[in-house]
Amino acid sequence: MIKANRYFHFLWSGQTLGNLGDILYIICLITLVYNETGSVLHMALIPFAKTMSLLVSGFIAPLFIEKYKRTSLLSHTLILKTALLLCLCLLVLYGLHTAITFTLLYVLIVIISFLEGLGNPARRSLVPDLVESAELVKANSFISIANQTSMLLSWPLGSVFLVIWGEQNMLWVTFGLFVVATILTTQIKVNETENVPKQESKWKAMKEGWQLIFSSKKLTTLTVMDVLENFGHGVWIAAILYVYVETAIGKGEAWWGYINASFFAGMMIAGLVVYRFSKKMESHLGFVIMASTVCLMLLNVWFGLTSSAWIALFVSFIFGFPQMARDVSQNTLIQESYRDKQLAKVYASHGTLVYGTFGIATLLLGWFAEEFGVRETYVLVCFLFLVSFSIAFMNRKVLHSDQTRVSLEQDLV
């Protein structure tokens, strides 16, 4: 078991319920909007609005992180998010019959997503404060297992409950999940130093996360790799995968669902494996990241070139193993570099890059797949993973987890 205080369990359980609620409410809204309008564009605006809000909040989050304690920021964003979800439930109960109600719907989605983007860096930065340093790999893998389990269950369960209960009742269930998640999260306590007012510009506070990343060769290496690989992950979006299933392996919509479910199942089981071998990984995190990148490159090529639906299903399942090992290792290395508010600001800046890169990738790779073919798109992204591995190999010495940590106190000297 993880050697952690009870507040860690409040953190991961609240996060799991929140993630489950996030997916269920998006499922409800997409279905509701499509049933009301019959417009694919209106339906697509929901995930687009969510992604753009997360991107913007990543830029602004350091201002709030600097001003408030991380536990307070996380709790208050969740409370506001839950209150706005209640407004959303009441709006849907009233009915989406006019342009004004639809406008209010999208405004609420934007604000809820914005609050999510403010709270996420604070939440992620709390993990090192709640577990022993030697337990970081295990703690990160445990949280990943919980996240992947909620994602694996939420889509099929959400679809079933949607048919049984309907959109309005499902939204109220989602509201209930957020209420419980908020109660759990507000119980978290960590020792945080009081904020000392600083006479500095807002721009300086906003760019601190970027400065912390690029002043550390280890974090610069990890960030560049993450940008390249997140761009490559754009081939796994629903639109490209749908075309792949139809044209590359000659199957129908059902197999689109099978491959998605297989991917999340693989990630969940991979989390258990990483959790089991976390002790052995601790001193080899840099090697794990490099080996995982090579595996991901080869699996993308195999997946893209195969004509067998069963092989595609198998590859999508095992894809989760190197991906999970890489994500947990990277997260641990980041947490070993900074602590407290500095770590939260690093996560905010890092998240902005991830959301921005993935958003651009979905557009460019979608265009490439349409112009040159879906198989060629999977081959293309393997070169991004090759470049990522080359960068990691050239900087392999700085990726060792036993590298001297840069503490908050050292940065203040």
TrEMBL record:
Pfam families named among the record's database cross-references: MFS_1
Subcellular location: Cell membrane
GO terms assigned for molecular function: transmembrane transporter activity
Swiss-Prot/TrEMBL keywords: Cell membrane, Membrane, Transmembrane, Transmembrane helix
InterPro entries for this protein: MFS, MFS_trans_sf
Membrane topology category: Multi-pass membrane protein
Cellular component aspect of the GO annotation: plasma membrane
TM annotation in the entry: 12-34, 40-65, 77-94, 100-118, 227-245, 257-277, 284-303, 309-325, 346-365, 377-395
Descriptive protein name: MFS transporter
Lineage: Bacteria, Bacillati, Bacillota, Bacilli, Bacillales
